[in-house]
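Progress note, project year one: complex with zinc ion.
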Amino acid sequence: MDLFTVTDVATGRGTLQYREECLTGLRCRISPERLKRHIDQTLKIPDTSESCPFCRENIFSITPTFPDGNRIIRGESVTFPNMFPFAEWHTVTVITRDHTVPAFTKQQIIDALQAQAESLLLSDGYPSINWNYLPSAGASIVHPHMQGIADQRPSWITERYLSAGKEYHAKTGNRYWDVVREQERSSDRYLFGDEILWSAHAVPVGEREVRGLLPVARLDEVENYIDSLAEGILEVISLYKKLGTYAFNMAIFFGREKSKNFSAFCSLVSRINPNPLSTSDSAFMERLHNEPIILTLPEDLGRYYRNEDR
Ligand SMILES: [Zn+2]
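Model obtained:
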């Protein structure tokens, strides 16, 4: 059973691939030739530490508290409700004490993920844990922070996988996520891990999309896996760094019911580095057509990781 389709189209300078994920209908175009344009930008992080609301001198006076009057404190992290929510329940976890850090420690990520989980379990909506890192990835504040959202209706991607996974099971008798695990493990896209299986996604929604597939569906089941989840996230971030990109987006999608037909997964995509001209990596195909132009073949990313690191 094919999980995705590939249609090759010859262009003047090479081959363009149209890919489609069979379960969801997600589509993208992969054009490895475009890598040769070298539009990479040298990292330039703006200095915004002055008047940052997430720095220690401001955070406890500027940020709001939960209804009980408290913020969630775990290690260095501080968690509170978002002042400008775009979800029924929207929380922010400031990950580090420092405004910027050269690299995240495992403990910082563990504390932030645990605090996010704790804050999201105060709601009964469909939760996700999200992270925009650096302004070119959409972060309006440079100080590293994760955002948890939960709504009665899941976001589009979660809803699509939930309903299509149910249909898939009814049609084939198989659990979609078991089939994905099996195929990814033995594919060129495989990166690392077993309990949480990390691989370059076959139909990337963004550049170098890597997914970590969890063995559970719901947020209240994730506690025992947070340690290994944090390790995996750091491994992907360091892979991106090795490839020259520092900015990224992350989302961890969870189901809500005791559904056998859903697995929670963590998705990361690398983003263009912050740069003085505001050169962007999102244009009409990404923003209006919902069909991203991808440069890196997922199979190349898998091979690169396994050759460089193992
Ligand atoms: Zn700060």
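The CA atoms of residues 165 and 261 lie 5 Å apart.
The longest strand covers residues 4-11.
No further modelling is planned for this target in the current period.
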